[in-house]
Amino acid sequence: MKKKFFLILSLGLLLTSCDFQARDEFEKQLAADEKKVDKDFKMPDISYEKAGEESSTNNDNKTDEKLDLTNLYGSGKAGTNLNPADAVGNIIDTSIGESQIGISLRPSSQVAGAYSTILSYKRNNELTEREFGPIAGINGLNTVVTFDKVSSDSGPMLLVSQVTINNGETYSAYYIFNKFMSLMDYLVFRTSTNDTTPTVERLDDIVEYTDQAIPGDLNKAIKNRMEAEDRYLPSLLDVYGINYKSVKSLYENKEMDIGYLPDITGKDRILLTKTTTSTDNMGMNIDMEK
């Protein structure tokens, strides 16, 4: 009999994508988590921050020095059906409140040969990068990542959303940052054809998980994940007046619902990046829409 339990675990997952982690790897991490000692993953002058690590009350994020994003990443290219290798570089240079942010296309630090979007900003005068993806460079991949401005009583906020299907694994994630680029809240959902029951993570806590795997087809895995999204997303988005809608995409030569994304358009949609849908070489090219 399936038993659902609610755990309070500190996973120490990197927000650099939270991105795409296979279900079996994730479950091994759950089993080993209590024995782990969290460590920061840092390169010189760059901070890769963990979920829940930063204080939402530390709102002094002013910096006198503007980021030179083109110098850091090169000049990227927006468009449709792009070879990602030809589009690498900075795509967006904008601000959320008083915080300058950049969105760039870069080779993934997590998956060899893949490409992801990199969210960059300064925090405590240190360059911070968060990876969302992968979006292209893997056969059988289908990812959509959106970056949206959101209004709140305390000022503008940033909402980053991602939906991914990758060869039997399905994943979605939603992150809210305030105007000082402090992470305020997030939700992550995972299912797979090996286990169609959803795992749900919120602010480093596993809030839904089952101890009995139930295999099924991809449609079932996606359906169960979307049902979990329906249960939890209102608690994240309703306070900001954000609606969400189902997104359809081509996968394995069939159009199907792949997940929910914010129903945001116009000037509040900063950037939409997605895997180019194609009957040939699905997963290899990318669309970048400002």
From TrEMBL:
<protein>
    <recommendedName>
        <fullName>Lipoprotein</fullName>
    </recommendedName>
</protein>
<feature type="signal peptide">
    <location>
        <begin position="1"/>
        <end position="22"/>
    </location>
</feature>
<keyword id="KW-0732">Signal</keyword>
